[in-house]
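**Protein of interest**
===
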Amino acid sequence: MPFSAKHVWLEAFYRYGAKVVVRLIYNCKFSGFENIPEAGPAIIISNHITYMDGMVLNAAIKRPIRFVIDEDIYNVPAVKHFMELNGAIPIAPNRQSVKNALNQVSDALKGGDLIVIFPEGSLTFTGNMIRFRFGVEWMAKRDNVVVIPIALKGLWGSIFSRKYLNSKFPWFPRSFRRTVWAKCGEPVPPEEAKVNHLQRVVMKLKNQIE
């Protein structure tokens, strides 16, 4: 995706701002991120707990990352500007949208980008992981790229999660500067990137966090 110099500068500026915001809100503990290559394509996957997950990953990863994001969220006015700067790829639950998104992902990987996908497809309602969807397996096989697993922990129960969705005061903070972990595992080769295996890998990483 060809970007102007202004676009690149703004993207870097906002990405840095996101890192600062995340570290102000949370006590962040990151480990294993040396597993992400300094250059070249890869698919990054993570469990999905809150609306802040993307910003936490952005704070942990040194390189620019591009998200595959639900089209409805992508089009929220307060969000769309940043998603466009990020080069995010919107996706909706219909055949044409999925086809377009997969083609954009393929083009991005061929260009050497890092693509971030939340394979559960939606935020958890319970704090437990939802069954991964098969899209990530197909993408890894189609473009012959590694999948890098990340586990997030400590975000469940924050105001950005769904834990208190039905409470009287869902947006009332229950804690301040909570500790949040992000643990990155070793790259999974495309021939091993079966969806069930990937889910087990992320779960194992999550269970290793203390």
